[in-house]
Design goal:
The chain has 191 residues and is mainly beta. 6% of the residues lie in helices and 48% in strands. The chain is built from 2 helices and 17 strands.
Length: 191
């Protein structure tokens, strides 16, 4: 994803492809680049309070960084392995992301302030490619590769993620994963 919209009405987006700029557009329509130097950015995500942006930076290897809008600072959150696709927990205290720091790509998380080291959310035999936390913060959903060109979407309670369940197996995972960002599927995941 190349853009994100905050609950406060601000938009952050990437300009161009390859090296790009991270641009913030306020609810009033004014825009400003957040960082002066073009870099390779991907998957910007606003914190729930709209004050920070988690973003993947770089390509060899990419890492997750956090940009604090008011302070104008960019802080590296990860540094080992390949780290992609950050998503905030609903309380804004942690960032969940995909990493191969232990071999296969899997779901990891870290305190948003970087105080504690990253932790693997659970062991997975599948390569996780994207992770989301349900709006209530109780369920983790992740997309995984499957053979034959399909993708599986699995979910598990964050209180008991040892046994994630398959939610759907589909070749149109992009639309499905995007729809999970809304409140409407939370009850489906918990039933």
């Amino acid at each position: 994803s190349k853009a994100a919209l905050s609950e406060q009405g601000a938009l952050v987006y990437l300009t161009g492809s390859g090296a790009s700029r991270l641009v913030l557009v306020g609810a009033n329509g004014t825009s400003k680049p957040l960082l002066p130097v073009p870099r390779v950015y991907d998957s910007p995500r606003f914190s729930p309070d709209g004050g920070r942006v988690a973003v993947t930076v770089g390509v060899q290897p990419p890492d997750v960084w956090v940009y604090h809008i008011a302070a104008g600072t960019l802080t590296r959150l990860t540094s080992e392995g390949t780290n992609l696709r950050p998503e905030w927990t609903p309380d804004g205290k942690q960032i969940v992301f995909v990493s191969n720091r232990s071999g296969e790509f899997g779901p990891w998380w870290r305190d948003a302030d970087g105080a504690a080291p990253p932790e693997k959310v659970f062991e997975s035999k599948d390569d996780a490619e994207e992770v989301l936390v349900a709006p209530d913060g109780r369920v983790l959903v992740y997309r995984r590769n499957q053979t034959g060109g399909t993708y599986g979407v699995r979910f598990g309670s964050l209180k008991d993620v040892a046994a994630p369940s398959t939610f759907v197996s589909t070749s149109s995972y992009r639309e499905f994963m995007q729809s999970l960002r809304s409140e409407e599927h939370t009850s489906e995941l918990q039933s």
